[in-house]
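Incident log, support desk, overnight shift.

02:14 A customer reports that sequence design results differ from what the structure should imply. Their input is reproduced verbatim below. On-call engineer (initials T.W.) acknowledged and began investigating.
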Protein backbone atom coordinates (compact mmCIF):
# COMPACT_ATOMS: atom_id res chain seq x y z
CA UNK A 1 0.00 0.00 0.00
CA UNK A 2 1.41 3.38 -0.97
CA UNK A 3 1.81 6.02 1.76
CA UNK A 4 0.01 9.38 1.68
CA UNK A 5 1.79 12.00 -0.39
CA UNK A 6 2.77 15.39 1.09
CA UNK A 7 -0.49 16.95 -0.04
CA UNK A 8 -2.43 14.23 1.75
CA UNK A 9 -0.46 14.81 4.93
CA UNK A 10 -1.09 18.57 4.71
CA UNK A 11 -4.81 18.11 4.37
CA UNK A 12 -4.96 15.54 7.13
CA UNK A 13 -3.07 17.77 9.54
CA UNK A 14 -5.36 20.73 8.98
CA UNK A 15 -8.41 19.07 10.47
CA UNK A 16 -9.21 15.78 12.11
CA UNK A 17 -11.86 14.73 9.62
CA UNK A 18 -14.31 11.93 10.37
CA UNK A 19 -15.15 9.36 7.67
CA UNK A 20 -18.21 7.15 8.13
CA UNK A 21 -17.94 3.83 6.26
CA UNK A 22 -21.15 1.81 5.77
CA UNK A 23 -20.86 -1.68 4.26
CA UNK A 24 -22.34 -5.06 5.27
CA UNK A 25 -19.07 -6.83 4.41
CA UNK A 26 -16.55 -6.77 7.27
CA UNK A 27 -13.62 -7.27 4.93
CA UNK A 28 -14.51 -4.11 3.00
CA UNK A 29 -14.77 -2.11 6.22
CA UNK A 30 -11.37 -3.37 7.33
CA UNK A 31 -9.81 -2.37 4.02
CA UNK A 32 -11.32 1.11 4.11
CA UNK A 33 -10.27 1.55 7.74
CA UNK A 34 -6.71 0.50 6.89
CA UNK A 35 -6.53 3.15 4.17
CA UNK A 36 -7.64 6.06 6.35
CA UNK A 37 -7.25 5.19 10.05
CA UNK A 38 -3.74 6.67 10.39
CA UNK A 39 -4.86 10.04 9.06
CA UNK A 40 -8.56 10.43 9.82
CA UNK A 41 -11.12 9.33 12.36
CA UNK A 42 -12.85 6.32 10.82
CA UNK A 43 -16.27 5.09 12.01
CA UNK A 44 -17.45 1.78 10.54
CA UNK A 45 -20.88 0.12 10.62
CA UNK A 46 -22.52 -2.84 8.84
CA UNK A 47 -26.06 -1.71 8.09
CA UNK A 48 -27.99 1.27 6.80
CA UNK A 49 -29.86 1.58 10.11
CA UNK A 50 -26.62 1.73 12.09
CA UNK A 51 -25.14 4.10 9.53
CA UNK A 52 -28.00 6.57 9.90
CA UNK A 53 -27.67 6.58 13.69
CA UNK A 54 -23.90 7.04 13.49
CA UNK A 55 -24.35 9.88 11.03
CA UNK A 56 -26.58 11.67 13.57
CA UNK A 57 -24.19 11.01 16.44
CA UNK A 58 -20.85 11.63 14.72
CA UNK A 59 -21.78 14.30 12.15
CA UNK A 60 -19.10 12.91 9.79
CA UNK A 61 -17.35 15.01 7.18
CA UNK A 62 -17.90 12.41 4.47
CA UNK A 63 -19.71 9.07 4.10
CA UNK A 64 -18.50 6.05 2.10
CA UNK A 65 -21.60 4.00 1.36
CA UNK A 66 -22.17 0.56 -0.16
CA UNK A 67 -25.30 0.10 -2.29
CA UNK A 68 -26.13 -3.60 -1.88
CA UNK A 69 -27.00 -4.22 1.76
CA UNK A 70 -29.76 -6.33 3.36
CA UNK A 71 -32.97 -4.79 4.79
CA UNK A 72 -32.19 -1.29 3.52
CA UNK A 73 -29.91 -0.57 0.59
CA UNK A 74 -27.58 2.37 0.02
CA UNK A 75 -29.96 4.19 -2.32
CA UNK A 76 -32.72 4.10 0.30
CA UNK A 77 -30.33 5.36 2.98
CA UNK A 78 -29.14 8.11 0.66
CA UNK A 79 -32.71 9.38 0.31
CA UNK A 80 -33.09 9.49 4.10
CA UNK A 81 -29.80 11.35 4.51
CA UNK A 82 -30.75 13.99 1.96
CA UNK A 83 -34.15 14.51 3.57
CA UNK A 84 -32.72 15.09 7.05
CA UNK A 85 -31.83 18.77 7.74
CA UNK A 86 -28.79 17.88 9.86
CA UNK A 87 -27.37 15.35 7.39
CA UNK A 88 -28.30 16.61 3.93
CA UNK A 89 -25.04 18.59 3.55
CA UNK A 90 -22.73 15.60 4.15
CA UNK A 91 -21.06 14.42 0.90
CA UNK A 92 -21.60 10.74 0.10
CA UNK A 93 -19.40 8.53 -2.08
CA UNK A 94 -20.96 5.26 -3.24
CA UNK A 95 -18.52 2.32 -3.26
CA UNK A 96 -20.29 -0.63 -4.87
CA UNK A 97 -19.95 -3.72 -7.01
CA UNK A 98 -22.78 -2.60 -9.31
CA UNK A 99 -21.39 -2.08 -12.80
CA UNK A 100 -24.46 -0.73 -14.59
CA UNK A 101 -24.27 2.87 -15.78
CA UNK A 102 -27.91 3.32 -14.78
CA UNK A 103 -27.04 2.49 -11.16
CA UNK A 104 -24.24 5.03 -11.20
CA UNK A 105 -26.57 7.62 -12.70
CA UNK A 106 -29.18 6.86 -10.03
CA UNK A 107 -26.63 7.34 -7.23
CA UNK A 108 -25.47 10.65 -8.64
CA UNK A 109 -29.05 11.82 -9.22
CA UNK A 110 -29.84 11.07 -5.56
CA UNK A 111 -27.08 13.49 -4.59
CA UNK A 112 -23.90 11.42 -4.28
CA UNK A 113 -20.71 13.40 -4.93
CA UNK A 114 -18.87 10.41 -6.41
CA UNK A 115 -19.30 6.77 -7.41
CA UNK A 116 -16.52 4.19 -7.14
CA UNK A 117 -16.93 0.65 -8.45
CA UNK A 118 -15.59 -2.47 -6.75
CA UNK A 119 -13.11 -3.99 -6.73
CA UNK A 120 -11.62 -0.61 -5.92
CA UNK A 121 -8.06 0.59 -6.16
CA UNK A 122 -6.70 1.84 -2.83
CA UNK A 123 -4.94 4.79 -4.42
CA UNK A 124 -8.07 5.91 -6.30
CA UNK A 125 -10.28 5.70 -3.21
CA UNK A 126 -7.70 7.63 -1.20
CA UNK A 127 -7.27 10.29 -3.88
CA UNK A 128 -10.99 10.83 -4.39
CA UNK A 129 -11.72 11.05 -0.68
CA UNK A 130 -8.86 13.52 -0.25
CA UNK A 131 -10.22 15.61 -3.11
CA UNK A 132 -13.66 15.87 -1.52
CA UNK A 133 -12.18 16.60 1.92
CA UNK A 134 -10.18 19.42 0.34
CA UNK A 135 -13.41 20.81 -1.10
CA UNK A 136 -14.93 20.60 2.39
CA UNK A 137 -11.93 22.42 3.86
CA UNK A 138 -12.23 25.22 1.32
CA UNK A 139 -15.99 25.46 1.84
CA UNK A 140 -15.49 25.73 5.62
CA UNK A 141 -12.94 28.49 5.12
CA UNK A 142 -15.32 30.42 2.89
CA UNK A 143 -18.08 29.99 5.44
CA UNK A 144 -15.79 31.21 8.20
CA UNK A 145 -14.79 34.29 6.21
CA UNK A 146 -18.44 34.99 5.44
CA UNK A 147 -19.41 34.90 9.12
CA UNK A 148 -16.44 36.68 10.72
CA UNK A 149 -15.12 40.22 10.70
CA UNK A 150 -11.60 40.26 9.27
CA UNK A 151 -10.42 43.22 11.38
CA UNK A 152 -11.42 42.11 14.87
CA UNK A 153 -11.82 38.38 14.11
CA UNK A 154 -15.17 38.55 15.88
CA UNK A 155 -18.30 37.00 14.37
CA UNK A 156 -20.11 39.54 12.22
CA UNK A 157 -23.71 40.72 11.77
CA UNK A 158 -24.65 37.72 9.64
CA UNK A 159 -23.44 35.39 12.37
CA UNK A 160 -25.30 37.49 14.94
CA UNK A 161 -28.55 37.01 13.03
CA UNK A 162 -28.04 33.24 13.21
CA UNK A 163 -26.75 32.81 16.75
CA UNK A 164 -28.88 35.37 18.57
CA UNK A 165 -32.09 33.77 17.28
CA UNK A 166 -30.84 30.29 18.20
CA UNK A 167 -30.03 31.37 21.75
CA UNK A 168 -33.32 33.25 21.99
CA UNK A 169 -35.31 30.15 21.05
CA UNK A 170 -33.30 27.93 23.41
CA UNK A 171 -33.79 30.34 26.30
CA UNK A 172 -37.48 30.64 25.45
CA UNK A 173 -37.91 26.88 25.64
CA UNK A 174 -35.98 26.67 28.92
CA UNK A 175 -37.50 29.90 30.29
CA UNK A 176 -33.99 31.12 31.09
CA UNK A 177 -33.16 34.79 31.58
CA UNK A 178 -30.85 36.37 29.01
CA UNK A 179 -29.14 39.73 28.56
CA UNK A 180 -28.87 41.27 25.09
CA UNK A 181 -27.20 44.56 24.34
CA UNK A 182 -25.13 46.96 22.28
CA UNK A 183 -21.67 48.41 22.97
CA UNK A 184 -20.48 51.56 21.21
CA UNK A 185 -17.02 53.13 21.37
CA UNK A 186 -17.26 56.71 22.68
CA UNK A 187 -16.11 59.57 20.42
CA UNK A 188 -14.61 57.10 17.96
CA UNK A 189 -14.91 59.40 14.94
CA UNK A 190 -12.89 62.04 16.79
CA UNK A 191 -10.33 59.35 17.65
CA UNK A 192 -9.99 58.34 13.99
CA UNK A 193 -9.71 61.98 12.87
CA UNK A 194 -7.01 62.68 15.45
CA UNK A 195 -4.92 59.48 15.34
CA UNK A 196 -5.78 58.08 11.91
CA UNK A 197 -7.81 55.07 10.82
CA UNK A 198 -4.92 52.63 11.16
CA UNK A 199 -4.57 53.41 14.86
CA UNK A 200 -8.37 53.32 15.13
CA UNK A 201 -8.30 49.76 13.81
CA UNK A 202 -5.77 48.83 16.49
CA UNK A 203 -8.08 50.23 19.16
CA UNK A 204 -11.08 48.31 17.81
CA UNK A 205 -9.10 45.05 17.94
CA UNK A 206 -8.02 45.72 21.54
CA UNK A 207 -11.56 46.55 22.65
CA UNK A 208 -12.99 43.51 20.85
CA UNK A 209 -10.49 41.16 22.47
CA UNK A 210 -10.86 42.49 26.00
CA UNK A 211 -14.67 42.39 25.97
CA UNK A 212 -14.65 38.98 24.29
CA UNK A 213 -12.52 37.64 27.16
CA UNK A 214 -14.79 39.25 29.75
CA UNK A 215 -17.98 37.81 28.27
CA UNK A 216 -16.45 34.39 27.61
CA UNK A 217 -16.10 33.87 31.36
CA UNK A 218 -19.88 34.14 31.68
CA UNK A 219 -20.88 32.08 28.65
CA UNK A 220 -21.52 35.12 26.49
CA UNK A 221 -20.52 36.22 23.00
CA UNK A 222 -19.80 39.49 21.20
CA UNK A 223 -20.26 40.36 17.51
CA UNK A 224 -19.05 43.30 15.44
CA UNK A 225 -22.18 44.65 13.78
CA UNK A 226 -21.06 48.12 12.73
CA UNK A 227 -18.00 50.36 12.49
CA UNK A 228 -17.51 50.84 16.24
CA UNK A 229 -20.67 49.04 17.35
CA UNK A 230 -20.80 45.59 18.92
CA UNK A 231 -23.79 43.41 19.80
CA UNK A 232 -23.62 40.87 22.63
CA UNK A 233 -25.61 38.43 24.70
CA UNK A 234 -25.01 36.29 27.77
CA UNK A 235 -27.15 34.09 30.03
CA UNK A 236 -28.04 35.21 33.54
CA UNK A 237 -25.57 33.78 36.03
CA UNK A 238 -26.50 32.40 39.45
CA UNK A 239 -23.28 33.46 41.15
CA UNK A 240 -23.15 37.04 39.88
CA UNK A 241 -25.41 39.83 38.69
CA UNK A 242 -26.02 41.38 35.29
CA UNK A 243 -24.70 44.65 36.66
CA UNK A 244 -21.40 43.06 37.67
CA UNK A 245 -20.91 41.44 34.26
CA UNK A 246 -21.67 44.65 32.35
CA UNK A 247 -19.45 46.66 34.69
CA UNK A 248 -16.63 44.19 34.08
CA UNK A 249 -16.99 44.80 30.33
CA UNK A 250 -17.04 48.57 30.83
CA UNK A 251 -14.00 48.60 33.11
CA UNK A 252 -12.06 46.16 30.93
CA UNK A 253 -11.96 48.88 28.27
CA UNK A 254 -11.00 51.77 30.56
CA UNK A 255 -8.28 49.60 32.07
CA UNK A 256 -6.65 49.43 28.65
CA UNK A 257 -5.78 53.08 29.35
CA UNK A 258 -5.74 54.08 25.69
CA UNK A 259 -5.18 57.87 25.47
CA UNK A 260 -7.85 59.91 23.68
CA UNK A 261 -6.27 63.37 23.38
CA UNK A 262 -8.83 64.39 20.79
CA UNK A 263 -11.15 65.00 23.78
CA UNK A 264 -8.59 66.20 26.32
CA UNK A 265 -5.14 65.22 27.57
CA UNK A 266 -6.50 63.18 30.48
CA UNK A 267 -9.21 61.36 28.55
CA UNK A 268 -9.06 57.61 27.84
CA UNK A 269 -10.95 55.53 25.28
CA UNK A 270 -14.23 54.25 26.75
CA UNK A 271 -17.46 52.58 25.67
CA UNK A 272 -21.16 53.01 26.35
CA UNK A 273 -23.53 50.08 26.86
CA UNK A 274 -27.27 49.67 26.43
CA UNK A 275 -28.65 46.33 27.60
CA UNK A 276 -31.93 44.49 28.14
CA UNK A 277 -32.49 41.72 30.68
CA UNK A 278 -35.34 39.46 29.58
CA UNK A 279 -36.83 35.99 29.73
CA UNK A 280 -37.69 35.27 26.07
CA UNK A 281 -41.44 34.86 25.64
CA UNK A 282 -44.31 35.07 23.16
CA UNK A 283 -44.94 38.76 23.87
CA UNK A 284 -41.67 40.04 22.46
CA UNK A 285 -38.97 39.27 19.88
CA UNK A 286 -35.21 39.58 19.61
CA UNK A 287 -35.70 42.51 17.21
CA UNK A 288 -37.81 44.40 19.75
CA UNK A 289 -35.29 43.70 22.48
CA UNK A 290 -32.40 45.03 20.39
CA UNK A 291 -34.43 48.12 19.49
CA UNK A 292 -34.88 48.83 23.18
CA UNK A 293 -31.19 48.15 23.83
CA UNK A 294 -30.41 50.74 21.16
CA UNK A 295 -32.70 53.22 22.95
CA UNK A 296 -30.85 52.60 26.24
CA UNK A 297 -27.54 53.10 24.45
CA UNK A 298 -28.83 56.39 23.01
CA UNK A 299 -29.59 57.62 26.54
CA UNK A 300 -25.99 56.92 27.62
CA UNK A 301 -24.44 58.45 24.51
CA UNK A 302 -26.38 61.64 25.09
CA UNK A 303 -25.42 61.97 28.75
CA UNK A 304 -22.21 60.90 30.49
CA UNK A 305 -20.99 58.14 28.11
CA UNK A 306 -18.63 55.55 29.64
CA UNK A 307 -21.68 54.14 31.41
CA UNK A 308 -24.37 51.46 31.28
CA UNK A 309 -28.13 51.70 30.90
CA UNK A 310 -29.86 48.43 31.78
CA UNK A 311 -33.57 47.70 31.41
CA UNK A 312 -35.42 44.62 32.60
CA UNK A 313 -38.44 43.40 30.65
CA UNK A 314 -40.86 41.24 32.59
CA UNK A 315 -42.99 38.58 30.83
CA UNK A 316 -45.71 41.16 30.18
CA UNK A 317 -43.20 43.44 28.42
CA UNK A 318 -43.31 45.97 31.26
CA UNK A 319 -40.09 47.96 31.63
CA UNK A 320 -38.07 48.10 34.84
CA UNK A 321 -35.04 50.48 34.59
CA UNK A 322 -31.90 49.14 36.30
CA UNK A 323 -29.45 51.86 35.29
CA UNK A 324 -25.83 51.47 36.36
CA UNK A 325 -23.54 54.45 36.88
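02:41 Re-run completed on a clean worker. Output:
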Amino acid sequence: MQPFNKEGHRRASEQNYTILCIDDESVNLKVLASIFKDHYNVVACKSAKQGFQHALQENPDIILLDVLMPEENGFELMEKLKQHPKLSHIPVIFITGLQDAEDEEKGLMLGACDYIQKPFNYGIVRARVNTHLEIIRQRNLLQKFALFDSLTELPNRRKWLQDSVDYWMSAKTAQSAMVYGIIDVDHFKKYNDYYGHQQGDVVLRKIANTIKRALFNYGGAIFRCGGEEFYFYFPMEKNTTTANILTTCLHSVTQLAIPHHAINTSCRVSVSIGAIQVIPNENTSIEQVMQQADERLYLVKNSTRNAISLLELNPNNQQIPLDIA
